[in-house]
Write the structure tokens for this entry.
Amino acid sequence: MADGGEDSGEGDANWRHVLGLLGTDNDSVRFAGLLLVTKCVSPDDHAKREQVFAAIGGVEFLLRLLLPLRVGRVHPQPVLEEEEVERQVQLAGLGLSVVSNLCLCQAVAQAEGMARVAEVALGVMR
């Protein structure tokens, strides 16, 4: 996540817009917001990481991002079309990236329910 380099007023307006995208009920809009986060958050800005975590709905959304990783381990999946497999891999990759980045902030990493998120994420490596 890199610093966007805008002046303060424009940067604040952009940040509020990104938080608005992250707070919607539409997952596609949330994904767009997550991609924009990379332009707005510097590597050492833990306060903004906490805001992202709160805006996305915390653990619940992260677990949904990692759903393809959970479902395959718990229930055998039916044979999927190649396009659907690729979509699930992309979602899981995005989920792992988001989780690892948010966990740079100790407050997020220690939030209630994050142990379950970590368990799911680590399950990929098994």
User: Anything to note?
Assistant: The chain is about 70% helix and 0% strand.
